[in-house]
Amino acid sequence: MSALTLAVLLSLVSAVAYAGGAILQERVAVSTPQHTYAPLRRPVWWCAVALNGLGALLHVVALAYGPLSLVQPLGALTIVFALPMAALFVHRKAGPTAWRGAIMAAVGLAGLLSLTGSASEQSLEGTERLMVALVTAGTVLALMTLAHAVHRHPVVRSVLLAGAAGVAFGIASVFTKSVAVEWTEDGTFAQFSSFLVIAALATSGMLLSQASYRGAGLAAPLATVTVVNPVVAAAVGLTLFGETFRYGTTGTALALACGVVAAGGLILLTTERISGSRKAAAESVAAAVPAQHTPESPRAITGGEPLTRRVGAPARVTGPRGRKGRGGHYDEWYSPRDERIKS
């Protein structure tokens, strides 16, 4: 087996591991809504943590055997693998809109990453590390605050938390790259503070991603984390590490187009979930209406379609079963044909 083939295989298995971890996280979020961030007593959650750790390890090993331009885009397949795996293992089927959004996000992200070139290996200096750490902490806290401010919109809240998780994961990758370069150059573990930052960012990202799955399903939060993570890392690479897009101006234009496609996929997934939530709420309300009819309601009497009740109609007609309501009014039932039936 060639090194390139091994890199592709490891990248695919890494994407499957990430997808499996996301599915377990979503299941834990559904079953334990009271534990928003860290359901530590759930063994299934620890399995999800292990799968995410395995995915990260396989991704790093794949980078040792294959080029970054090949391995990074293959990571975008996580969202594509997650949808059929969820349908197979937890019977959570995705609709056509979710599939379109997932494919758009994966294709856009893969194209963007494949166009990102790499300059000479560089690392962050002390001042740059402090600046990046402070900006990252501020961004994550701002997204968390905004997410809790829109708690009445669970899908928007989940996407904001997933975005915060993606930012934390992306900057953790930046610090990891910086430490790896310095380790290669110096061969010492002199950057202890960087290891602390990496641990804090990775833990925060894991907890935020767990919280993002509560009330928003699987596809939208997973796609947000999958896209935001490498995009943030690539943005830092472009601004601080001297990385550039390939093919000059043409590559830059193509990268922007890929970014638009990925963003469109995320928007499609978010709106699809919001519309699905509204439809489910409407169906639940409609299902609760027949239960309000008494055995003596016009539905039971006529055996026909459900009737609309009008309370407080003028007391012009009295019948053997008429009941006088408040203020000398009767309760009346109107059928779809506008037929009055006295209750």
TrEMBL record:
Subcellular location: Membrane
Pfam families for this protein: Mg_trans_NIPA
Biased composition annotated in UniProt, kind: Basic and acidic residues: 328-343
Main location: membrane
Domain of life according to the entry: Bacteria
Keywords recorded for this protein, A-Z: Membrane, Transmembrane, Transmembrane helix
The species this protein was found in: Streptomyces aureus
Key word Transit peptide present: no
InterPro entries on file: EmrE-like, Mg_trans_NIPA
Region (Disordered): 291-343
Record flagged with keyword Transmembrane helix: yes
Entry membrane topology: Multi-pass membrane protein
Protein name: DMT family transporter
Sequence intervals crossing the membrane: 6-24, 44-65, 71-90, 97-118, 130-147, 159-176, 188-208, 220-241, 247-269
